[in-house]
Specification:
The complex is a heterodimer of chains A (about 400) and B (about 60). Chain A has about 400 residues and is α/β, with parallel strands linked by helices. Chain A has three domains: about 35 residues, no CATH class; about 140 residues, no CATH class; about 160 residues. Helix content of chain A is about 15%, strand content about 25%. In chain A, the strands form five sheets. In chain A, strands 11, 12, 13, 14, 15 and 16 form a six-stranded parallel β-sheet that branches. A four-stranded parallel β-sheet of chain A has the order 4-5-7-9, with no helix packed on it. Chain A has a three-stranded antiparallel β-sheet with strand order 1-2-3, with no helix packed on it. In chain A, helix 4 links the parallel strand 17 and strand 18. The longest helix of chain A has 19 residues. The radius of gyration of chain A is 25 Å and the shape is flat. By secondary structure, chain B is an alpha+beta fold. Chain B has one domain. In chain B, about 10% of the residues lie in helices and about 25% in strands. Chain B is built from one helix and five strands. In chain B, the strands form two sheets. Chain B has a three-stranded antiparallel β-sheet. A two-stranded antiparallel sheet of chain B has the order 1-4. In chain B, strand 2 and strand 3 form a beta hairpin. The radius of gyration of chain B is 16 Å and the shape is elongated. The termini of chain B are far apart. Classes of the chains: A alpha/beta (about 400), B alpha+beta (about 60). At the A-B interface, strand 17, strand 18, helix 6 and strand 19 of A face strand 3 and strand 4 of B.
Chain lengths: ~400, ~60
C-alpha cells in the first residue's frame, strides 16, 4: 500500500538537478548513486572551499622540465614601471609583472621578454603570458636576493600554478606583515631542486584561503630539503590552513629547530622524514584537521614537553611517534585529550607518562597491543586509561600482562 | 597440529569496584583496573560513578 503518489518524471528531474548541483559544487562529473552517494558527497563537501573552474588545465598533466637548461621562465614584478614593493602592499588588480623566458648561464639569467604589464589572473592574464601555467626553472624567484628581513611584500597573486625547479633560490617568503604569499587562485605550489634555499619567511596567512591541491618544497621530486637548515621566522597560525584534506604533506631532510605553534593547524595528513626538530608542548594543539601524523625512523625529533600536544585533535586517527624521543620531556597532561577519533597510537620506550585514551573510542585492538609492546619498563607507576570496555572485552589477560609486567597499570 | 596445548600463567592484580562505583587514583577513573607491578591497590579507591562523570579528567 502506497502512502503517497509520486510523479516519477518530476522526481527523476529533481534528483538529476540535485545530482548536478552536487557535482558542480564538488568539481566532479562522476555518476552518483541515490541516496548513499548523494549523502556522502554532501558530507564530504567543503562548502567554504573554492572550486577549480572546469576550463582550467588538469594539474596531473603538467610535467617538470627534464632539462633544466631549457624552458626557463623568469617572473618578477616590474619595478621599472614604478612598482615599489615597500609601499605597494599586497598585489592587486593594478599589479603588473613581466615574464621572461630563457636560460640560466653560470647562475645568471639570459633570456627574452615574453610579456610585460601582465596583470593578475582575474584581469588580463591569459595563456599567452604563461604565468597562467608557471612551469619551469625559477632561478630567480621574486626576491631571492633581497636581504633577510627586508620589508618587501610580494605575492603570487597572478599565478595559478607554480611548478618547477629553483636551484639558485636562496630565500622564499613574504617577510612583510601577515601578507598572503599566494592568492585564492593558486592551486599548487611545487618547487623542486631548492638546493640553495636556506631561508623561509612565511608569515601567518601565507597560504590562507588557497585552494591548493599540492604543496611541495624540496630538492627533489619527493620534497626533499637536502638537509638544509631552514631558518624560518614568522610562520604562524594557519600557515598551512588552506591545504586541509588534500594531499599528505611530506616534509623531509629539514632541520626545523623549534617548531612554531600552530604551524600545522591546517594539515590533514603530515609525514616527517629525516627531519630534525624539537617540539614544545602544544604545537599540534587545535590542529582540528589533522588526521594523521607519521614520524619516520629517519627523523631526529624530540619533545621537551608533551603538555597538551594533541589536545582536541578531534579528527586525528593515526599518530605514529615511535621514533620520537620523549626522554627530555618534562610535563605531560592533556596530551591526547579529546582525540576522539584516534585509531592508532605508537610511542616507544622513552615515554614515561600517563596515557589517557579514555575518549578514543575508535582505538583498534592491534594498535593497543602494539603500544603495549613498544612501551618500556618504568620504575614508577603510570597508568594507561583505555576506552570503557576495551580491556574487559577485547584484550586478553595475556595481552594486558605484557605491559603490567613493565610497571604500567591499565585502567 | 602437534596436539600440545599452549599453556601460560598470567598473574595480574585486578581491582573491581562494587556495582555503581568506579575506581580512581585521583587522576583517572575506571570500571576495572589491572595493576602494574609498580602499582598498589592502596593507590586506588572506590567512588560513586557519578563522581567520575562530574570529575572526569581527560588528562595524560
Amino acid at each position: 500500500m502506497l502512502d503517497k503518489a509520486v510523479d516519477s518524471a518530476f522526481l527523476d528531474s529533481g534528483l538529476a538537478q540535485v545530482a548536478d548541483a552536487i557535482r558542480a559544487k564538488g568539481g566532479t562529473k562522476d555518476r552518483l548513486q541515490f541516496p548513499d552517494e548523494y549523502v556522502s558527497a554532501v558530507e564530504d563537501m567543503d562548502v567554504t572551499r573554492w572550486s577549480k573552474p572546469a576550463d582550467w588545465p588538469d594539474l596531473d598533466a603538467l610535467e617538470l622540465p627534464t632539462d633544466r637548461s631549457e624552458n626557463v621562465i623568469y617572473l618578477l614584478y616590474d619595478r621599472k614601471c614604478g612598482f615599489d614593493p615597500v609601499s605597494f602592499g599586497v598585489a592587486n588588480s593594478s599589479t603588473r609583472m613581466t615574464v621572461h623566458k630563457g636560460n640560466v648561464v653560470d647562475g645568471e639569467f639570459v633570456g627574452e621578454l615574453v610579456a610585460s604589464n601582465v596583470a593578475k589572473y582575474t584581469d588580463t592574464l591569459t595563456d599567452e603570458y604563461t604565468v597562467y601555467r608557471l612551469i619551469g626553472s625559477f632561478d630567480c624567484f621574486f626576491f631571492h636576493d633581497y636581504p633577510a628581513g627586508a620589508s618587501y611584500d610580494v605575492s603570487l597573486q597572478g599565478v595559478v600554478w607554480v611548478r618547477g625547479t629553483a636551484p639558485f633560490l636562496k630565500e622564499l617568503g613574504s617577510p612583510y606583515k601577515n601578507r598572503e604569499f599566494a592568492s585564492i587562485h593558486t592551486q599548487a605550489f611545487e618547487l623542486y631542486d631548492v638546493a640553495s634555499l636556506t631561508y623561509i619567511v612565511l608569515n601567518s596567512n601565507a597560504f590562507r584561503n588557497m585552494p591548493m591541491y599540492r604543496f611541495y618544497l624540496g630538492v627533489d621530486e619527493n620534497g626533499d630539503f637536502g638537509g638544509n637548515t631552514l631558518t624560518r621566522t614568522g610562520v604562524g597560525p594557519m600557515f598551512f590552513q588552506p591545504i586541509g584534506a588534500r594531499d599528505e604533506i611530506v616534509i623531509q631532510n629539514a632541520n626545523y629547530g623549534n617548531l612554531a605553534s600552530d604551524t600545522f593547524s591546517g594539515v590533514a595528513r603530515l609525514r616527517l622524514r629525516n627531519v630534525t626538530a624539537n617540539i614544545s608542548g602544544n604545537r599540534f594543539q587545535g590542529a582540528i584537521l589533522l588526521k594523521s601524523l607519521v614520524v619516520e625512523d629517519s627523523c631526529n625529533i624530540t619533545f621537551d614537553s608533551v603538555y597538551g600536544s594533541f589536545f582536541y585533535c578531534e579528527m586525528l586517527e593515526t599518530l605514529d611517534l615511535h621514533p620520537v624521543s620523549f626522554s627530555g620531556a618534562t610535563a605531560a597532561s592533556n596530551t591526547f585529550s579529546g582525540c576522539r577519533s584516534l585509531k592508532e597510537l605508537r610511542l616507544n620506550d622513552t615515554w614515561a607518562f600517563d596515557i589517557n585514551l579514555s575518549n578514543a573510542m575508535s582505538l583498534e585492538k592491534d594498535s593497543v597491543t602494539q603500544l603495549f609492546s613498544d612501551l618500556g619498563t618504568i620504575d614508577t607507576a603510570h597508568t594507561i586509561t583505555l576506552p570503557y570496555g576495551m580491556k574487559n572485552y577485547l584484550l586478553t589477560a595475556e595481552e594486558i600482562a605484557v605491559v603490567t609486567e613493565k610497571g604500567w597499570t591499565v585502567a | 597440529m602437534d596436539g600440545r596445548m599452549k599453556t601460560s600463567e598470567v598473574k595480574i592484580v585486578v581491582l573491581e569496584p562494587d556495582e555503581g562505583n568506579v575506581l580512581t587514583n585521583g587522576e583517572t577513573y575506571s570500571e576495572k583496573v589491572f595493576l602494574g607491578k609498580n602499582d598498589s591497590p592502596a593507590n586506588w579507591r572506590e567512588v560513586p560513578a557519578e563522581d567520575a562523570d562530574s570529575n572526569e579528567n581527560e588528562g595524560a
